[in-house]
Amino acid sequence: MNQQLLANFNKAFESKARLSIMSVLMVNDSLSFNAFKELLGLTDGNLATHLRALEEAGFVSVQKQFIGRKPNTTYSATDTGRQAFTEHLNALEAFIRGI
Amino acid sequence: MNQQLLANFNKAFESKARLSIMSVLMVNDSLSFNAFKELLGLTDGNLATHLRALEEAGFVSVQKQFIGRKPNTTYSATDTGRQAFTEHLNALEAFIRGI
Fold first, then answer.
1. With bands split at pLDDT 50, 70 and 90, how would you rate the model's confidence at A4?
2. Which of A53, B18, B86, B92 has its CA 20 to 30 A from that of A96?
3. Which spans of this chain does the record mark as coiled coil (chains A, B) (predicted)?
């Protein structure tokens, strides 16, 4: 049964928003909150919730700086995050192939 | 950006349980509640909630019969469900390939 193929399915990445956030961070070293907002078309609250959950899971790290006097928050995937996301995608891929 | 590839991502199928339920119904004409329970290792309440949500979305149909005097509830994928699930898997596949 295909469920074994989903052993590495990671609930932290299941939503469209989380898949999108992680895929962006796989190919960009870091991205600002506003760039994410624009790219994903999410509300501030929704985006912040997803980013915080990924941060709490240890999959995303947050950098807070100032550009001049303006605060600028950027996000990066951690090594753990990259590995877990890759495993999640591999699980999905194997699952889809198995159907 | 890969998000466009997720245009057909369907929230109704995002969880591991829903992916598993639908994949089973893609290859089985119908399955009983108890067979699902055994196969997926979900609690009655959890399984019932997922099946009801898929039924309410029009993706799963329910057949209630009696075997002798015992009630037997079975579930099938509807044509709409098969199509929507296929589109969801295609979206995931394209998304994964795009990363």
1. confident
2. A53
3. none
Contacts of A19 in chain B (CB under 8 A): 6, 9, 95
Q: Give yes or no for residue B68 having a pLDDT over 80.
A: yes
CA–CA separation, A24 vs A36, rounded Å?
A: 9
Task: Report ipTM for this prediction.
Answer: 0.88
Interface size, chain A vs chain B, as Cβ–Cβ contacts under 8 Å: 58
- Integer angstrom CA distances of residue B77 from A18, A21, A82, B68, B86: 27, 31, 35, 25, 12
Would you say B73 and B35 are in contact if contact means Cβ atoms under 8 Å apart? no
Supply angle C-alpha A39, A43, A49, rounded to 5.
Answer: 100
Chain B CB contacts of A31 below 8 Å? none
Tell me the C-alpha distance between B35 and B7, whole Å: 33
Q: Give chain A's domains with CATH numbers.
A: 2-92 (1.10.10.10)
